[in-house]
Amino acid sequence: MAAIYSLFIINKSGGLIFYKDYGSAGRMDTNDSLRLASLWHSMHAISQQLSPTTGCSGIELLQADTFDLHCFQSLTGTKIFVVCEPSTLHMEGLLKVIYELYTDYVLKNPFYEMEMPIRCELFDVNLSQAIQKDRVPLLGR
Amino acid sequence: MAPLAPRTGDAVFANVERVNAELFTLTYGAIVRQLLTDLEEVEEVNKQLDQMGYNIGVRLIDEFLAKSGVSSCVDFRETADVIAKVGFKMFLGVTASVTNWDAEGTSCSLVLDDNPLVDFVELPDTCQGLYYCNILSGVIRGALEMVSMKTEVTWIRDMLHGDDAYELRVKLLKQVPEEYPYKDDE
To answer: Model-level pTM?
Structure first.
């Protein structure tokens, strides 16, 4: 069963607001995750400028030997990206589901400050349900 | 199959969670009533409603984008249409019409014939300057700001003041795309 290694959410300025790893393959310490998030934010921005076509909205998929990285950027600048095993299916669907969970359980939380790290219990609970391995294929509804 | 092909307003409205309309109307009425008691001045209440709407709008836009599946709008005309047909339908259950475009296409009117916020409402003589639905102007302004559009939203017609419909004037001041500091000539 294809596995997700880690999930990142970054705000529009490139700061990491949410990081979760699944299993030891994705684990990294806080500083590394922060560094990776800003690195990705910059690369995403640079890719828009490098693109030979106009209207490019940035990197959506990065494929390497040992992992794939799927990235979703909303029109408001929030990026959600997931690092997973190569050739994992349905990741785009998963990213959109996570975006909906973000709007329902993070943004509607009155104690959540915009652009700040996410500390919302309902979001964590619903995210775990969405990511459970046997449910990921069902997200292609 | 990813769940989000762009949907019409009705389709999205059918899929979101809804709340009792009267509860919504009465809760909003209680909020305005409380603001009037706390702030006393009608102008202050107008400003506070706009600010509250702004705070709602900056968060609402993500929910709107996530659930309706709309993609980037080509121009401001499309933006206005999407707000009137999909946005209003999704959050208020009513559609607005878009009229009175100016020559450059940067300013238009959104006309609401039906407005769930104002059911059962009458303005007393002491509050004639109150823009009861000013929260809506804040919501539109806040939401558009998060997608790089600075706008100015004002009320032109208000049924609580005796007009025949609710008309909001939305004016696009400027587009402010995200700037990345990667220019070589700096």
So the answer is: 0.90
